[in-house]
Design brief:
Layout: H1 3-9, H2 20-33, E1 36-37, H3 51-60, H4 67-80, E2 84-92, E3 104-113, E4 116-120, E5 132-133, E6 139-141, E7 147-152, E8 163-168, E9 185-190, H5 197-209, H6 214-217, E10 220-225, E11 228-233, E12 236-241, E13 244-249, H7 253-264, H8 270-274
Antiparallel strand pairs: 1-10, 2-3, 2-9, 3-4, 4-5, 6-7, 7-8, 8-9, 10-11, 11-12, 12-13
Helix pairs in contact: 3-4
Length: 280
């Protein structure tokens, strides 16, 4: 981890303090600067989640990534700043039927600050998830107007997870999978079981290769805005700012690459954009 280059990539000249406010500031800067995307999959590049590969892609090359990449980079940054953390695995419930039990295809971080446990997530592409203390009923609000809360949901190791993250807020400040009402909706469930690198490698392999899934059939990108959220699914772009929504269709590969660069901080060349199935 080259901390100076990482901080420059996310637009910070100095590291925030190692406290809850500093953690929130660091994660917010990361989410606003490094867009979420799965484009390595349709481009046939493959996705590597070791520290060196992730740093080279997301920092040196200016690309984005999905949760296994984003939270690898964020974890390495937290470690460099002296914050003890470890990965967790979650089942994403967003947009699924009530009793569905999906695989553990999302990773987040458990962070220790002065003996207190927090969750941090720089890689959830569906919406902006703020850091939260690992406490039943903990809540936080994000600049898009949404509330987020943690609830105990079961015993450790249970299929339903020990903890459940929920969100209540404008559906337009998500990637489109949220229900239209603004009431509490489940985002994902997780437990505190130990997760090693091979567990992450298995989840990453399934997520990036399993046929007929969201990540292997669609081109996805999103980013947190200072006052909202922007998401692109294939050629449909939606932007939510200050309570106002707008949508438009991406016209061609050049428009796609420029939108990624200007709006989401993702450096994809026009030539690579033209190779996407959307424009083949």
């Amino acid at each position: 981890m080259d901390l100076t280059r990482y901080l420059a990539r996310i637009g910070l000249t100095a590291a925030p303090a190692n406290d809850p406010q500093g953690l929130a500031a660091l994660q917010s800067a990361h989410r606003r600067a490094i867009g979420f995307e799965n484009l390595a999959i349709p481009l046939g590049e493959g996705i590597r989640i070791d520290s060196a590969s992730v740093f080279e892609k997301l920092v040196a090359r200016g690309r984005g990534g999905y949760c296994f990449e984003q939270n690898r980079l964020f974890s390495d940054a937290l470690t460099a700043l002296g914050l003890v953390n470890r990965p967790l695995l979650a089942r994403v419930l967003l947009g699924l039927p009530e009793h569905a039990i999906p695989p553990r295809t999302h990773t987040l971080l458990l962070v220790n600050m002065d003996g207190a446990a927090w969750i941090a997530d720089a890689g959830f592409g569906g919406s902006f998830v703020p850091p939260l203390p690992l406490e039943d009923g903990a809540q936080a609000q994000t600049p898009d107007g949404a509330w987020h809360r943690l609830l105990r949901s079961g015993e450790r190791g249970a299929l339903g997870g020990e903890w459940r993250l929920e969100r209540a807020g404008p559906a337009n400040a998500t990637d489109g999978r949220s229900a239209p009402h603004g009431e509490w909706q489940p985002q994902y469930v997780f437990d505190l079981g130990e997760v090693v690198q091979d567990d992450l490698e298995m989840g990453n392999h399934w997520t990036s290769t399993r046929p007929d899934t969201r990540f292997t059939t669609l081109c996805i990108a999103s980013v947190v805005l200072e006052d909202g959220f922007a998401a692109m699914t294939d050629r449909q772009l939606s932007i939510y700012r200050n309570g106002v929504s707008e949508t438009r269709e991406i016209s061609d590969a050049a428009d796609y690459a420029q939108t990624l660069r200007d709006l989401m901080g993702i450096a994809l060349s026009g030539e690579d954009a033209a190779r996407l199935p959307l424009f083949a």
